[in-house]
Design a protein that fits this description.
Shape: globular
Distance between the termini: 25 Å
Organism: Saccharothrix tamanrassetensis
Helix content: 25-40%
Protein name: L-asparaginase II
CATH class: Alpha Beta
CATH topology: Beta-lactamase
Oligomer: single chain
Length: 314
């Protein structure tokens, strides 16, 4: 894959490491304004695809709204309100945690994990960061009378609905199929297609699209968690829908039509927000300063920073 240099890791005045990747930024007309690497190549969106997955569910009768719909789009930190929300979704569908097929896990939020371990708790599906999505998939199955024990099968009606919705919004066919970390089917598209999907989600006049976009932008702490960069990003840009994903993927769409998608080649998450914000600024978007770099620590204190390369700073 022909990725290009997108970020540098500076420890003091010493260039210690670099990150390669691909980036695409679309203007309000949908035209490509920033292209780095090969954003036309197929990649796995990972959890950046969750807003599209949620849209497919809403289109098929999922009755969630507000914070619980935002949780359906989440890679949540595992804070108490996230976990309680997952159980509320399941209860509303007449189910309990035993119906979840996501991988048992620990909270991914630092504070949430510390409190979790202090309380002597272990791994469970409800704590897994994708459990909100899985609970919503199950609720969609119940509404439609679809089987709940096989909802992770790529041929299941719920997953076919996700695939069809993704292809519609991305404007391209799925180019690869795999299994995500949580066990759900994973559909590969290009970064251009991912950016296009986010732009269409945030600018559509459709009732279902508006519900998903409004839920995420209004309740960003339910999409990420306390202190998470995806939460801070949506709070800083009114109406924006942003979603981080594993293996260095990030995407954002604005209600004014701009959209960005990026992928860090080595899979590291530490450079993805830096690159995303740099691309937003090239589009003229007033992106938050605190996400423009990422601190490099020495003895627990900032001694340097991860910064975008000059090609992304204009």
């Amino acid at each position: 894959m022909a990725h290009e240099l997108v970020a540098e890791v500076w420890r003091g005045d010493f260039l210690e490491s670099v990150h390669h990747g691909s980036v695409v930024a679309l203007d309000p007309s949908g035209a490509v304004q920033v292209r780095v690497g090969q954003p036309d190549r197929v990649t796995y969106p990972r959890s950046s695809n969750k807003p599209v997955q949620a849209l497919a569910m809403v289109r098929h009768g999922l009755a969630l709204d507000g914070e619980l719909l935002a949780l359906a789009c989440a890679s949540h930190s595992g804070e108490d309100f996230h976990v309680d929300g997952v159980l509320r979704i399941l209860e509303g569908a007449g189910l309990d945690e035993s119906a979840l097929r996501c991988t048992p896990d620990l909270p991914i939020g630092e504070d949430a994990l510390r409190a979790h371990l202090k309380a002597g708790r272990g791994k469970a599906p409800r704590y897994m960061n994708c459990s909100g999505k899985h609970a919503a998939m199950l609720a969609t199955c119940v509404v439609n009378g679809w089987p709940t024990d096989s909802y992770l099968d790529p041929a299941h009606p719920s997953q076919q609905a996700v695939r069809n919705t993704l292809e519609e919004l991305a404007g391209e066919r799925v180019g690869a199929v795999g299994v995500d970390g949580c066990g759900a089917p994973l559909f590969g598209i290009s970064l251009v297609g991912l950016a296009r999907a986010f732009a269409r989600l945030t600018t559509s006049d459709g009732e279902h699209e508006r519900r998903v976009a409004r839920a995420m932008s209004t309740h960003p702490e339910w999409v990420g968690g306390t202190g998470r960069d995806v939460t801070r990003l949506m709070r800083a840009i009114p109406g924006a829908v942003a979603k981080d994903g594993a293996e260095g993927v990030y995407a954002i769409g604005l209600p004014t039509g701009e959209a960005v998608a990026c992928k860090i080649a080595d899979g590291s998450g530490r450079a993805r927000a830096v690159v995303l914000v740099a691309a937003l600024r090239l589009l003229g978007v007033d992106a938050p300063e605190d996400l423009a770099t990422f601190p490099v620590l020495g003895h627990g204190r900032p001694v340097g920073a991860i910064r975008p390369v000059s090609a992304l700073t204009g």
